[in-house]
Amino acid sequence: MSRDLLTLFLVSLIFGSLPLSAQTFTRITDGPAVNGGGNSTGSSWVDFNNDGFIDLFVANGNISAENNALFQNNRMGAFSAILNIPMVTDNTPSIGATWADYDNDGDVDLFVANRENINNLLYENNGDGSFLTLSNIPPVSDGGNSNISSWLDVENDGDLDLFVLNFNQANFLYLNDGDGNFSRVSGDILVTDVTPSISAVWGDYDNDGDLDLFVANGGNQNNILYINQGNVTFTKTVFSDGLSSLGASWGDFDNDGDLDLFVANILGANNRLYRNSGAPDYMLTPMDAGSLSSDGGFTVGSGWGDFDNDGDLDLIAGNANGENAFLYTNNDDTTFTKISSGDIVENGGSTFSVSMGDIDRDGDLDIYMSNINNENNFLYRNEQTGRNWICIKGIGTTSNRSAVGARIHIKSMTANSSVWQMREIASQHGYNSQNSYWQHFGIGDALTVDTLLLQWPGGDTDTLSDFTANQYYTVVENQGVLGISSSGTALPRELTLEQNFPNPFNPETTVRYHLSRVSQRIIIIYDLLGRVVKEMPAITQPAGSYAFRWDGRNSAGVPVVSGIYYLNIRTTNSQSTIPMLLIR
Question: What is the pLDDT of residue 494?
Fold first, then answer.
C-alpha cells in the first residue's frame, strides 16, 4: 500500500464513524455575496469562466425590479462582485435563472426568468468574461409571469431546449433548432395547462431515458407529474394532496437507482417525501420519514446532498418567515435524524432558494441560501473532515455539452459493503436553485471507486473503473477521463499551471502559468499517442504570471484534428501537464 493510501486508510479509521451532528457548517459573513441585502429568490453555482472554481449568480427582484448579481470565486475562499455587464445592470423583476451550454461551444450561457409580464432574458457567453444579450428570438420575446426555468434536452437530440414555468398562465417550451434559433411548442398538455404553478423540477423518475416534470402548485391545488412519452408529448398524473407547495427536489436517497421526491410546503402544511417504488410501476408513494415528513412551516427551497460524505443523500430545506432551516441526516435505513444545533439551523431568515457546491474544492458541499425582504443572504462553509469523496463532471459530445440529463452511477466498498450511488445532472433544483454541475459523491472510508457508469442522454454508456478517492474527474462522452485534479488550492513551489481557457476550445485556447522564481521553461504539446505536436523553445523568465496561446496548429502551422491534447510545461525543478479538448 502506498504512503498516500495508507494515510487515507488511517484517517478513515479515526474519523469514518463521525455523525453529521459532529460536522460543522460555518456561516461566512464577509464579502459582497452575503452583504447588501435585497430580494433574492434564486441562486446558481456555475463555473462561468471555466477556471475550475464555481462562481455564484443571484437573481433579485421578487417584489420589484432590481439588479441581479454575479460573484466570481477568487479561489481563496472569497468572492468578488462582477460589475458593469448587462446581466447585473438590466434591472428587471427577476425570480430565478438557469445556466447551461445551450450552443455547445464550451461555455455556459444564462437564461433569466422575469415576472410581471416582463420579457425574459438570455445571455450568450462569449468565453472571455463578457456576455451578449440576445433579442428577437422566442425565449426573450414572450413576456409572462415566469417563476422557474430549466435547460433540458427534451428530445435527446444533442442540444438543449428550454422550459419556462408561468404562474396562472400557460407554460413555455422552446425547442433548440441547433443553429441558434428556437421554436415554441404548442398544443401539448405541458404547455396548455394553466395552474397556480410555483416550481418545477425535471427528472427521469421512471428510468426510461427521458426527462419527466414535477410541478408544485400553490393555493391548496394538487401537484402534477407530467410523464414524458417521447416526441415532445406528455401525459399527466395528478397528486391528490391539495397542498400549498412551493418547491420540490429529486434525489435517490435510498440508493436503489431511481429518483425519489421531496416536496416543500407552506402555510403550516407538513412537507412530504415520496419514495419511488421502482420497476415496473414507478409509483411515488408518501412515506413516514419521521420529522422530515412531519415538520411543518414555510418551506420553499430544498436540496439533496451528501453533506457528511458517508455515501447517502441528506436533505436541507430552507424556510421563510424568519423560521430556521431544516437539516436532516440520512441514517441509511430510510429514516432521517434532524440536526438541531449549529449555524445552519439557527439563523432564521426569509429563505427561498437553497443551492450547493464545493466552493473551495476541499471535497464537501457548501450551501447558499437566498433571502427576500432585504435580508442578507447566507453562505455556509462545510467543515466536514475524515471521510472520502469523489467529484465527477461530464462533457457531452454527441449529447449536449453540459451533460444535462446524464446519470452518473458509482460503486465503492464503503463501510464493508458494496454501495452503488446515482446522481442525475440537472440545470435546476428545488426552488429556483441550481447546484454545481460537478457531481459530488461521499464514499466514507472507501479509498477508491471501483466502477463508474455514466449514462448519456443520447443513449451511450461509458463504463470506467479504478478511481482514486478525493479527486476531481472530468469524463468526456465516449472518450474516457479528460482531466484529473486534486482538491484544494495549494501551489507547487516553483511552477503553477492552470487549466486552459476555454476548454473545450475551437480554434484557440489560452494557458496561464506562474513561476515563483526565475526559471527556464519549456512548453511541449502532445497528442494522445504521445507524439509531439508543437514545441516551444526554452526561454528563461523571471518570477511572475504568464500566458501561452495555442491556435490549434502543429509546428508546421497545419491545423490539427479534433481530440485530446496534452500540454506539458517544465522548469529545472518542476513540471506539470494538463489535458485540452479541441472540438472543431
Answer: 65
Cis amide linkage into residue 507, ω under 30° from 0? yes
pTM of this prediction exceeds 0.90: no
Q: How far apart are CA 377 and CA 347, in angstroms?
A: 11
Could you report the per-residue pLDDT of 132-156, keeping only the tens digit for each? 999 989 999 988 899 999 999 999 9
The string of DSSP codes covering 32-69 is GGGSS---EEEEEEE-TT-SSS-EEEEEE-SSS-B--E
- Per the omega criterion (within 30 degrees of 0), is the bond before 502 cis? yes
Is residue 460 a contact partner of residue 398, using CB atoms and an 8 Å limit? yes
DSSP 8-state secondary structure symbol assigned to residue 5? H
Would you call 89 exposed, middle or buried from its count of C-beta atoms within 10 A (0-12, 13-18, 19+)? exposed
Burial class (CB in 10 A: 0-12, 13-18, 19+), 284: buried
Which grid cell sits at 413? Answer: 466498498
Per-residue pLDDT at 382 exceeds 60: yes
Q: Which residue has the cell 489560452?
A: 510
Is the pLDDT at 276 greater than 50? The verdict is yes
Q: How confident is the model at residue 129 (pLDDT cuts 50, 70, 90)?
A: confident
- Which residues lie across from 520 on neighbouring strands? 540
What is the DSSP-derived secondary structure letter of residue 404?
T
State the Cα–Cα distance between residues 19 and 382, nearest whole angstrom: 14
Q: CA–CA separation, 175 vs 154, rounded Å?
A: 8
Strand intervals (E) in 377-492? 378-382, 388-395, 407-414, 417-424, 433-434, 439-444, 448-455, 461-468, 471-476, 480-486
How far is CA 33 from its chain centroid?
18
Q: Which burial class, exposed, middle or buried, applies to 42 when counting CB atoms under 10 A from its CB (0-12, 13-18, 19+)?
A: buried
Q: Rounded to the nearest 5 degrees, what angle is found at the Cα of 196, between the Cα atoms of 195 and 199?
A: 105
- Picking from 412, 411, 414, 392, the residue whose alpha carbon sits closest to that of residue 471 is 392
3-state secondary structure of 11: helix
Q: Kindly provide the b/e burial profile for residues 301-325, where b requires at least 16 CB atoms within 10 angstroms of the residue's own CB.
A: bbbbbbbbbbbbbbbbbbbbeebbb
- Largest Cα–Cα distance of the chain, in whole Å? 73
Q: What is the mean pLDDT of residues 272-282?
A: 96
What is the per-residue DSSP string for 499-555? Answer: PPBSSSBSS-EEEEEEESS-EEEEEEEE-TTS-EEEEEEEEEE-SEEEEEEE-SB-T
Residue 463 burial by Cβ neighbours in a 10 Å radius (0-12, 13-18, 19+):
exposed
Average pLDDT over residues 200-214: 98
DSSP-assigned states of every residue in 204-228: -TT-SSS-EEEEEE-TTPPPEEEEE
**Is beta strand 131-133 parallel, antiparallel or unpaired with respect to 121-125?**
antiparallel
Chain segment 420-458, per-residue pLDDT in tens:
999 999 999 999 999 999 999 999 999 999 999 999 998
Distances (CA, A) of 135 to 58, 139, 142, 201: 22, 9, 11, 26
